[in-house]
Write a structure and sequence with these properties.
With 336 residues, the protein is α+β, with helices and mostly antiparallel strands. The protein has three domains: 29-42 and 265-334, conserved putative lor/sdh protein from methanococcus maripaludis s2 fold (Beta Barrel); 45-53 and 184-258, Efflux pump adaptor protein, beta barrel domain (Elongation Factor Tu (Ef-tu), domain 3); 58-178, RNA polymerase II/Efflux pump adaptor protein, barrel-sandwich hybrid domain (OB fold (Dihydrolipoamide Acetyltransferase, E2P), Beta Barrel), CATH 2.40.50.100. Helix content is 23%, strand content 35%. The chain is built from four helices and 23 strands. It has helices at 2-18, 89-117, 123-148, 194-197; strands at residues 29-30, 32-34, 45-52, 55-59, 64-69, 76-77, 82-86, 151-153, 158-163, 170-171, 176-182, 186-192, 205-210, 216-224, 235-241, 253-258, 267-268, 274-276, 279-285, 291-302, 305-310, 317-319, 333-334. Strands 3-12-15-14-13-16 form a six-stranded antiparallel β-barrel. Strands 17-21-20-19-18 form a five-stranded antiparallel beta sheet, with no helix packed on it. A hairpin with a 5-residue loop joins strand 19 (279-285) and strand 20. The radius of gyration is 39 Å and the shape is elongated.
Length: 336
């Protein structure tokens, strides 16, 4: 009897196991981000380049082939120093031709003066020769000037900030050859993203630090472009550094932080946006790991994502990926 009861008991246990309730599914794992802590929202420091307050692009006044460049980038130049030369061959020929025409006109004018004193020619004929002489002298002067323009001279003391043409290159009149940075005040040229321009205005105080050292300098926002660069979608700005010293070398990289800069609008990935009818929303993750849908206002878009102008607060956690698989009140597990 005992042996008959044991198989019967085992069968009952198997049936009980088959009817057991399966364990509930685990909450989905989601990737989240905290508003104000993502890489897209950190941008209080702007890198730029040390530039001179006053810079000049030097160019020849006429077309020609660049024969010689006597300075390189970083060279100090003085007022009147010859920095580059064009091939003067054609210019010398033109000056010689103009001088020959002037000499011919002078000889004609002298001959007519002599003839006029002896009443062999009229006053009108003499006046025509005098006019021709004046025109020839003007042409000769212009040709001499053209020949002199073959030498590119520094119009002020400074440092060669950039070389823009090389010997052998055929240049057109006005094409920049050198960029000269004048001695004096230094600035930092930076580019501001769209999310940082709002609230910025000239005169804002700034702190500048060079990457090559630990010293900081006080500065002010001097200039802010009213239009964005069409390629980079950033706004060019200049920050003056009145107390710059020899440690701020032209071309050096520096970082700029603005005092009292308004907090930048948060930027979230496009994958974090959920379409709720004709509006956009994000999933907020609560302290109990449940999600709730909240409408947001998108002010614009950048390469980093959507700029949120209303609907979220710094420190709140939102779902960054997989937003279309969630339901309100659903529990989630946060990916670490």
């Amino acid at each position: 009897m005992k042996h008959v009861f044991l198989p019967f008991l085992a069968a009952l246990l198997l049936v009980a196991c088959d009817k057991a309730t399966p364990p509930p599914p685990l909450p989905p794992v989601v990737k989240t981000l905290i508003i104000g802590q993502s890489a897209a929202n950190t941008g209080r420091s702007y890198s730029g380049e040390i530039r001179a307050r006053h810079e000049t692009l030097l160019a020849f006044r006429l077309d020609g082939k660049l024969l010689e460049r006597s300075v390189d980038a970083g060279a100090a130049v003085k007022v009147g120093q010859v920095l580059a030369r064009l091939d003067p061959a054609d210019l010398r020929l033109a000056a010689g031709q103009a001088e020959a025409q002037r000499a011919l006109a002078l000889a004609e004018a002298r001959r007519y003066r002599d003839l006029h004193t002896r009443n062999f020619v009229s006053a009108a004929a003499l006046e025509a020769k005098e006019t021709a002489l004046a025109s020839a002298e003007a042409q000769a002067g212009m040709a001499r000037n053209q020949a002199a323009y073959a030498n590119l001279r520094a119009d002020h003391a400074g440092i060669v900030a950039a070389v823009l043409a090389e010997p052998g290159q055929v240049l057109s009149a006005g094409q920049p050859v050198l960029r000269i940075a004048r001695d004096g005040e230094r600035e930092v040229a930076i580019s501001l993203p769209e999310t940082a321009v709002t609230g910025m205005k000239p005169g804002m105080e700034a702190e500048i630090s060079a990457w090559s050292g630990n010293k900081t300098y006080r500065g002010r926002l001097r200039e802010l472009s009213p239009a964005a660069d069409p390629a980079t979608r950033t706004y060019a700005a200049r920050v003056s550094v009145p107390d710059a010293d020899t440690h701020l070398v032209l071309g050096m990289t520096a970082s700029v932080r603005f005092a009292g800069e308004p907090a930048p609008a948060p930027v979230v990935p496009l994958a974090a946006l959920f379409q709720q009818g004709d509006k956009l929303a994000v999933w907020i993750t609560g302290s109990d790991s449940t999600v709730s849908l909240r409408p947001v206002t998108v002010a614009g878009y950048t390469d980093a994502g959507a700029v949120i102008s209303a609907g979220v607060q710094p420190g709140e956690r939102i779902v960054a990926v997989g937003v279309h698989k969630l339901n309100a009140g659903q529990k989630v597990r946060i990916a670490r």
